[in-house]
Every structure is written in structure tokens, then in C-alpha cells.
């Protein structure tokens, strides 16, 4: 693939990813509530969702995601409900329960939440259906070019997500007292509930 095309795609994706949305809110909430393991899992889920839509766009199926109608609405609402449910769960957890859950199963739960958030996020569909075809000729892509795009998307999204995750995890590790931890859990839960509300309202 021409370097200029790869750079144009990476720049467009980076700009879109930098605009805070449900994905970033969810990442902050999971990291604050469950720590670095959950942050990694949630980030992997977010990136996997983007790669799914990238493949759909290349396959000419991006419009299908927009015309799914009620099916997409169900996916979107399911993602919103899941985020809100996890937000309530984190809100109600004690500091000890939070630490225990951070060590047990957070990666997969957070990964599922990240994937669901991306798949139910209209912003992601708009990028891969509307913006991506403006910067790339999707009809002439080979499998090798698609692989290059997937690597570029993974690198760009990772670079965008890392600062958010590190900042949230630093805030979590600095706070140690049970009272402060309880407040942190409530804040993290509120962020996840807000992310779920953003998905539902979008």
C-alpha cells in the first residue's frame, strides 16, 4: 500500500479516536474501578471492535451495519445496558471486593465490554462507512493491504488509549484508604453509567 494512503488512514483514525466518546469513558471507568488488567482487556476489546468494522468496510458491508435497523438498535441497547450494569456493580463494590475482582476475571469481562462498546458505537460506524472511503480506495485493496491497515489501526488506537489508561491507573494506585477507594469506585461506576447512557442516546 502507498505510504501516503496508510498515513492518511492513520491520521484520520487517530483524530477520530482522540475525540472522547463512550469508548474512552468506558476505558476510564474500567481502569479506575478494576485496574491495569481490566484496562488492557477493555482496550483489546475496543481495538477488536474497530478491526471488525474495518473488515466490514473493506468487504463492502459497512452500509449493512447502518441498515440493520432494529438489529443494530438491539445491539446498541444491549451494550448500553451492559455498561450501566457494570457501572452499578463497581459503584456498589467495596475496596476489598474491587481488588479481588481486579485479580479475577476482569480481563475477559472488560474485553467483552470494550468489544460491545465499539460494536454499538455509531461513531465507529460513521468513521468506517463514511470517512474511511474518503481517504482510501477500498475497491483496490489486496489482503496484504488489509493486513497493513489492521496493523496501522491497532498501533494508532493503542497509542491513543495508553495515555488515558495510564492516567486512570495512576489515580487508582495513588488512592489507598478505604474511604477514598469507596469514592473512587463510585466515580468509576458513574463514568461507566455515563458511557452506557452515551451509547444509548447516540
- Quaternary form: single chain
Helix and strand element order: HHHHHHHHHH
How many H/I helices? Answer: 10
Q: Which structural class fits the helix and strand makeup? A: mainly alpha
* Strand residues, percent: under 5%
N/C terminus separation = 34 Å
**Into how many domains do the coordinates divide?**
1
Radius of gyration: 17 Å
Number of strands: 0
The helical percent reads over 70%
Mean of the pLDDT scores?
Answer: 78
Low-confidence stretches: none
Largest sheet, in brief, is: none
- CA-based shape: elongated
Description:
There is one protein chain. With 202 residues, this protein is mainly alpha-helical. The chain has one domain (3-201). Helices cover 86% and strands 0% of the residues. Helix 1 packs antiparallel against helix 8, helix 2 (22-34) packs antiparallel against helix 7 (106-119) and helix 5 runs antiparallel to helix 10 (178-201). The longest helix is centred in the C-terminal third of the chain and has 32 residues, at 143-174. It starts with a helix and ends with a helix. The mean pLDDT is 78.
Amino acid at each position: 500500500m502507498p505510504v501516503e494512503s496508510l498515513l492518511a488512514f492513520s491520521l484520520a483514525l487517530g483524530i477520530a479516536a482522540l475525540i472522547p466518546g463512550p469508548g474512552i469513558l468506558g476505558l476510564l471507568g474500567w481502569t479506575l474501578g478494576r485496574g491495569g488488567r481490566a484496562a488492557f482487556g477493555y482496550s483489546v476489546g475496543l481495538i477488536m471492535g474497530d478491526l471488525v468494522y474495518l473488515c466490514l468496510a473493506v468487504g463492502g458491508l459497512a452500509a449493512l451495519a447502518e441498515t440493520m435497523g432494529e438489529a443494530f438498535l438491539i445491539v446498541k441497547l444491549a451494550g448500553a445496558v451492559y455498561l450501566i450494569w457494570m457501572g452499578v456493580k463497581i459503584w456498589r463494590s467495596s475496596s476489598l471486593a474491587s481488588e479481588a475482582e481486579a485479580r479475577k476475571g476482569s480481563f475477559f469481562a472488560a474485553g467483552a465490554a470494550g468489544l460491545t462498546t465499539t460494536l454499538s458505537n455509531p461513531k465507529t460506524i460513521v468513521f468506517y462507512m463514511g470517512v474511511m472511503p474518503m481517504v482510501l480506495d477500498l475497491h483496490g485493496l489486496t489482503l496484504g493491504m488489509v493486513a497493513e491497515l489492521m496493523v496501522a489501526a491497532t498501533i494508532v488506537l493503542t497509542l491513543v488509549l495508553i495515555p488515558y489508561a495510564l492516567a486512570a491507573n495512576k489515580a487508582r494506585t495513588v488512592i489507598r484508604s478505604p474511604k477514598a477507594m469507596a469514592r473512587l469506585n463510585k466515580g468509576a461506576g458513574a463514568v461507566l453509567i455515563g458511557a452506557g447512557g452515551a451509547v444509548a442516546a447516540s
